[in-house]
Amino acid sequence: MQSQIDTELIDTERIDSRRVDSGRITNVRMEKLAQAWRPIWESVRRS
Question: How far is CA 14 from CA 4, 10, 26, 28, 37, in A?
Answer without folding.
Answer: 15, 6, 18, 21, 35
